[in-house]
Amino acid sequence: MSPFHYLHGELHAESVPLSKIAEEFGSPCYVYSRAYLEQRFTEYTEALEGQDHLVCYAVKANSNIAVLNVLARLGAGFDIVSSGELERVLAAGGKPDRIVFSGVGKTAAEMQRALEVGIHCFNVESEAELERLNSVAEAMNVKAPISIRVNPDVDAKTHPYISTGLRDNKFGIDIERAPEVYRRAASLPNIKIKGVDCHIGSQLIDTSPFLDALERVLKLVEVLASMNITISHLDLGGGLGVRYRDETAPDTGDYIRAIRAKLGERKVTLMFEPGRSIAANAGVLLTRVEYLKLNEHKNFAIIDAAMNDMIRPALYSAWMDLMAVQPREDGVSRSYDFVGPVCETGDFLAKDRELCIEEGDLLALASSGAYGFTMSSNYNSRGRAAEVMVDGDKCHLIRARETVTDLMRGETLLP
Ligand SMILES: Cc1ncc(COP(=O)(O)O)c(C=O)c1O
Ligand SMILES: N[C@@H](CCCC[NH3+])C(=O)O
C-alpha cells in the first residue's frame, strides 16, 4: 500500500501531513517513507527464503545515505556503478562483500578501490575491461572476483532509452561470445570467476523477457560447465516495473517464484539488482505553485520544482501523477501544463492535467523516489532540493537543500 494517502482532506506521508513537511523544510523537497522502502526490499528476501540469495539494491535509483542505511540494516547488498556510489554504500554501513560493481566504464582507480575494500564481484562488461581488471589485480597481488555481464538479446519491451539487453545496446557482452570470454577469464591469473550477470532493462511490466533471458543464461551455464567452468551465482539484474499511471505492475513475489521455478534444483546463489521497484513509490516530490498563467490557448501552472529536480518527464516523456496536497472543494478546475522556472521548453513535470488550484498551493509528484534526486542537476544554478524521510510519525531531514554557496564551492577566479 502506498505510504501517501489522503486523510482529513489532506495528503499525508504515513501519518505526517505533507503541508507540515513543506512548512518545516520548504519546497521543492523529496519526501521518502522508510516503512515502504523496507517493505519493498523485504518482498524480495521473503520470496527468496530457502534459496541462497543476495539482493543488491541498485544505488543509482536513490543514493541518499539514509536510504542506503535503511536497506543495509536489513542486510541488503548493493549494486554500484562508480566509486562515488561505493563510498556512499560504505558510509551508510553497507558490507563490502555484498557489493557488485556494474557499468561499462570502470576506471583503474575505481577497480583498485573496490579491490582494496573487497567487494563481492565485478560485473565485467567488455573484454578490454577484463584485461584491465586483471592488470590492476596483479599489481595489487590479489584476485578479482568477476561475473561477465552477458547481453542475451531479448527485447525488454520498455522505453528504448532504458532497454539494455539488446545487441544494439552498449551493455554487456554478446551471449554468443561469452564462452570465449569466460575461457579467457579462466586463463587470467588474477581473475576469479564467480558468476554470470544479466540486466535487460528497466521498468519492465511484462516479466516474460526476464524468463527468456534466464533461459539463455542457463544454457550458457551448461556450456560453461562443459568447459569445466563452475558458476556459483546468477545475477539477474533489476528492472521490475512499477505503477506510474495505470500499469499493472508485476508482483515481486510472483516474479521471484517464476524465476525459482525455472531455476529448478540447480545449486547457485540467486542475485538481483532492484532499484526502481524498491524506491520509486517510496517517494514524492513536494512542490508549490508559484504562478498561474492563463493564456488564450493554454494554461500554465508555474511551480517551484523544475526539470533540474526531476528530469524523467523531459527525458523519457515519462508520465508521473501530480496530486494536490490539500484539494480544494470549490474553485475553478482547469487543465494546466505544470512547468518549472528553468529556461527550456522541455521544462515540464506534467502536461494537460486537470486540477483546481491557486497560487501557493502545494502539489506532490508521485513515484519520485527512484531516479528523481539522483538524476537532478544544478542547471540554471538551482540548488538541489532537500530530502526528508518519514519514519513512523517523525520526519527527518536527510539532505539539506543546496545553497548558493554550496553551488559555487570549488570555483576560483583567474589570477
Ligand atoms: C546494471 C543495472 N542493474 C540494476 C539496475 C536497476 O534497475 P531498476 O531500477 O529498473 O530495477 C540498472 C538500471 O537499469 C542497471 O543498469
Ligand atoms: N533513469 C531511468 C532508468 C534508467 C535505469 C538505469 N539503467 C528512469 O528514470 O526511468
UniProtKB/TrEMBL annotation:
Q: So which cofactors does this thing need?
A: pyridoxal 5'-phosphate
Q: In which pathway does it act?
A: Amino-acid biosynthesis; L-lysine biosynthesis via DAP pathway; L-lysine from DL-2,6-diaminopimelate: step 1/1
Which residues hold substrate?
A: 276, 312, 316, 344, 371
Tell whether Nucleus is among the UniProt keywords.
no
Q: Which residue intervals define the domain Orn/DAP/Arg decarboxylase 2 N-terminal in the entry?
A: 36-280
Tell me where on the tree of life, at the top rank, the source sits.
Bacteria
Write out the function statement from the record.
Specifically catalyzes the decarboxylation of meso-diaminopimelate (meso-DAP) to L-lysine.
> What does the subunit section of this Swiss-Prot or TrEMBL entry state?
Homodimer.
Which family is annotated? Belongs to the Orn/Lys/Arg decarboxylase class-II family. LysA subfamily.
Name the UniProt record assigns to this protein? Diaminopimelate decarboxylase
Question: Which organism was this protein described from?
Answer: Zhongshania arctica
**What is the gene name?**
lysA
